[in-house]
Amino acid sequence: MTAGEPLLLASGLRKSFGPTVALDGAGIAIGAGEVVAVMGPSGSGKSTLLHCLAGIVRPDAGTVRYAGRELSALPDRERSALRRRDFGFVFQFGQLVPELTCLENVALPLRLTGVRRKEARDRALAWLERLEVTEVAGQRPGEVSGGQGQRVAVARALVTRARVVFADEPTGALDSLNGERVLQLLTGAARETGAAVVLVTHEARVAAYCDREVVVRDGRPRDLAAVT
Ligand SMILES: Nc1ncnc2c1ncn2[C@@H]1O[C@H](COP(=O)(O)OP(=O)(O)OP(=O)(O)O)[C@@H](O)[C@H]1O
C-alpha cells in the first residue's frame, strides 16, 4: 500500500446487469477504521457497490484496491482467503447457518481459519457477551428473535478481527428500537476493534453512528459533508 492510500479504494466502477446499469463510474475511498454510511434511493446501486468493494461481484470496468492490492487481479482462491481473513459480513437476514447453534455460528469463521475448537468457543462466547446475547448461545437461529439474530451476525462478522465489515441493510428487518441498538452495537464494537464499516442502510438516524455519509444516485456515490 502506498503511503497515504486509503484501506479500500475504488475508482471508475461500472457494472451492468443486461440493459440495467447498476454502477456508472462509481468511486469511493474508505480509510482504516472509518465508519461510512451508504445511503440512497432503492435501485441506485448501493448493494452492487458493496458487493464490488468486497470482491463478491466483479465489476465490468474500474478497480478496487484493498490494502494496496487490486482485488480483481488476485486469483479466486486468494480473494476468498482474503475475504475470510480480513472481511466480515452482515446482511439483512439469512446469513447464519440454521443447523448450527448461535455459538457455533460465531465460532465458525474462526474454525475455518484454523483456530482450535476450545479457543474458538471461548472467543465466540466473549463476542456474544459483548453483543448482549449470551442467552441465545445454545439456540439455533430459527429459535431467536430478529434482533438477537442480527447481534449474533455482528458477533460473527467481528470475531475474526475483520479489518472491514460490510453490512447491507443489517437493520432492515428490525423495528426501529432494535434497529438502532444493533447499529449502536455494530459501530461501537467496530470502533473498539479498529474495523472499518461500509454500512448500506435506509435507517434515518444512522448519521449519529457514522463518520461520513455517502449518497448513491444513479450508480454513483457522492460524498456528503463529513458528519460532525
Ligand atoms: N443480480 C442482478 N440481476 C439483475 N439486475 C440486478 C442484479 N443486481 C442488481 N440489479 C439491478 O441493478 C440496479 C441496482 O441494484 P442494487 O441492488 O445495487 O440497488 P440498491 O441501491 O442496493 O437497491 P435497494 O435499496 O432496493 O436494495 C437495480 O436496478 C437492480 O434491479
UniProtKB/TrEMBL annotation:
Supply the Pfam families for this chain: ABC_tran (PF00005)
Which one of the record's GO molecular function terms can you name? ATP hydrolysis activity
Q: Which residues form the ABC transporter domain?
A: 8-227
Q: Which SMART domains does the entry mention?
A: AAA
- GO annotations of cellular component type: plasma membrane
UniProt keyword annotations, A-Z: ATP-binding, Nucleotide-binding, Plasmid, Transport
Q: Which residues form the signal peptide?
A: none
Check the record and name the CDD domains matching this protein: ABC_MJ0796_LolCDE_FtsE
Q: What is this protein called?
A: ABC transporter ATP-binding protein
Species for this entry:
Streptantibioticus cattleyicolor (strain ATCC 35852 / DSM 46488 / JCM 4925 / NBRC 14057 / NRRL 8057) (Streptomyces cattleya)
